[in-house]
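Weekly sync notes, structure subgroup
Attendees: PM, AL, DS (notes)

Item 1: joint prediction request from the bench team. They want all two components modeled as one assembly rather than separately. Inputs as received:
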Amino acid sequence: MKKHNFSAGPSILPPEVLLKASQAIVDYNNSGLSIIEISHRSKDFVDVMENARALALELLGLEGKGYKALFLQGGASTQFLMVAMNLLEKRAGYLNTGAWSTKAIKEAKKLDDIYEVASSADANFNYIPKGFDVPSDYDYLHCTSNNTIFGTQLKQIPQVDIPLVCDMSSDIYSRNIDYSKFDLIYAGAQKNMGPAGTTLVIVKEDILGKVSRDIPSIMDYKLHIKSGSMLNTPPVFAVYTSMLTLEWLKAKGGVAAIEKENEKKASLMYSEIDLNPLFKGFAAKEDRSMMNATFNLTNDNLKETFETMLVEAGISGVNGHRSVGGYRASMYNALPLESVKALVEVMSELESKA
Amino acid sequence: MKKHNFSAGPSILPPEVLLKASQAIVDYNNSGLSIIEISHRSKDFVDVMENARALALELLGLEGKGYKALFLQGGASTQFLMVAMNLLEKRAGYLNTGAWSTKAIKEAKKLDDIYEVASSADANFNYIPKGFDVPSDYDYLHCTSNNTIFGTQLKQIPQVDIPLVCDMSSDIYSRNIDYSKFDLIYAGAQKNMGPAGTTLVIVKEDILGKVSRDIPSIMDYKLHIKSGSMLNTPPVFAVYTSMLTLEWLKAKGGVAAIEKENEKKASLMYSEIDLNPLFKGFAAKEDRSMMNATFNLTNDNLKETFETMLVEAGISGVNGHRSVGGYRASMYNALPLESVKALVEVMSELESKA
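Output from the run, pasted for the record:
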């Protein structure tokens, strides 16, 4: 039985992507070789990398606007360091909206001066701070567009005159915003884009080359750009599967089309949370994430019954993060509406039983 | 037609590993979910990671000897930096045997003082320097066990009283040496261990924690060890496929058994290079690599004929690196003897034609 996969990441991928990826492991395009046992310098793989890089920009409406796309390794956690190494000269501003922002701040602080422009740590990050000021002589402002753990999402893109850097790991390609407001976007692939093992970095070239430090080669965006995202052997399978997922998204009509589906899923989910007296949402309503709905039972005695019903319905991966507790329904691009319907049905069945 | 795959890396993997990896992409162990769409914190994947880490040590005879195995991201190129960040306090020695050693030296130099204890750059790295001295107050000695580009291999493990660090990317698990002479071993997976996208690091814990710098979290071996190689989301597919390859090696009888096969393949290959007047080996005979045989045609006019014959015989990936030219036959663990026989046959056929 195929399950309803609400996993927070690594997370659900389209079945047709999984099937193609699986076939390429055995024989890539009738070449007699697997995609994972050919040279990354072969035409076959260079084509994959170039196609993935082009699609990454095209689907965000960023082609021809001075941006380059890179498929790197090391996750967003490596980007916490890399962003600071490439952009931090004197002082940067960070908006602290959760566990990932906090980590990004910690790593950047090891290199230089960091100022928290605002934080919602006072309320266990259940909202997004608004109305903060960012001095115009800062090197950049760093924000996190979606907070998987807490289920909040940045709805207003900060208006600043300095480079704007954003960790979009958990909502890139899910909504139709003006991506050109950002100068550097990074995202671990394992939510909306592909399997774990590669990190997309999209950077406007003109913000680079302005720091005085001697950047280690493997941390230097300029060197990665110069080598066509092949400064060293890339994570072949993760890049290939990301390319397939981006092709799938394009065929569906791109970000504008998937946004409509995501809105439908989120709306159904949050309606149930709000109307069912047995459940209570965690995040402030105006900051609710379209990707991750966090909620708790209002009566903990129902925990066992509810969780048994979830298992029986084939619903997987809805346990909340330990720092919030309760439940989290991650509704990434590849999750079908019917999975949300299945979850909502279990929730409403619980209500009729209780 | 399945090809004879001599690719230098990413390179050939055992067919049974490819098949299992391919199945797990569609449905992992009848769970109804793909291995790449489940949480890395799920029992299913934690078991994979722990099994891979244990096998990595066991196959090198390093269990219970104070070592930890990590499956990281970023390739050997990231290790060039990470080794220095974790171990370099004042000065370290580097043995320069090729392009990868040269890069390792360059990156470490950005952090502190590096001394080249010996180099074979004078002869385009066609031999391994011997009889060098390493001061006993250095932080560590770094060497490269096998040089894919030049086809040389370190036969004598340097005898030093300081920590010995080795880049074994292209010959780990291929030969039966005393791995406990090393204190830190690192290896990109994409030769003998798995697909591109993960890097094995094996480190003796007691050499860590001795530098004064504030190591960035993602670069800190101690933090990776503490989190069970899951400081951040690991490259799930690459770790899983590496585990399958290590299981395959164990079932074959381990490193001692594969060494015998590798010796047979290399011996057949080098015999042909030495006995066939149309070919000439590149590396000094006593330093020849069992993994990568580098050779040139003695008469360049035969190039086209030879290369056409290679294609017709289904032989793939034998082009030499641009810095050496000619040909390179990479004979990693998964390459069957019959593939070497097929190549040798083409070489000897060329002789009979010429």
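Discussion: Chain B touches chain A through 62 residues (CB under 8 Å).
Action: AL to compare against the crosslinking data before next sync.
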